Amino acid sequence: MISVRLEPENKDVCVERAKTVTQLLHALGRKPGRALVIRAGQLLTPDLNLRPDDHIIVRDVGSRG
Fold first, then answer.
1. Are 57 and 2 in contact (CB under 8 A)?
2. Spacing of C-alpha 59 from chain mean position
3. What dihedral do alpha carbons 57, 22, 19, 47 form, nearest 10°?
4. Structural domain includes residue 65
5. CATH number for the domain harbouring residue 56
6. Has residue 50 been placed in a domain?
7. Which of 1, 4, 25, 64 is the right S-S partner for 30, CB 3.0 to 4.6 Å?
8. Model-wide pTM > 0.85
């Protein structure tokens, strides 16, 4: 299970079946070009594999109007 911190909502969620960053973003309803995915202080690219014990930050980027 991957622990995810959603920002700027400051909400914690868990995602069970995501093997890549792209799958994680899809499970969270986020678009790859509209969110940063961070693990241990490093940005992750959409093709990178995730581990079940990962702690990830997903930070929305861009204007909200």
1. no
2. 7
3. -100
4. no
5. 3.10.20.30
6. yes
7. 25
8. yes
Q: What tokens does 62 get?
A: 């861009």
Q: β-strand 35-39 against 2-7: which pairing, if any?
A: unpaired
Q: Evaluate whether residue 11 is within a structural domain.
A: yes
The amino acid at residue 43 is L
Contact 20, 47 (CB under 8 A): yes
Residue 25: give the domain boundaries. Answer: 2-60
Phi and psi angles of residue 61, each rounded to the nearest 5 degrees, phi first: -125, 155
With respect to residue 6, please indicate whether it lies within any of the assigned structural domains: yes
Domain count, the chain: 1
Identity (one letter) of the amino acid at 20?
A: T
Specify the residue for token string 């940063």: 36
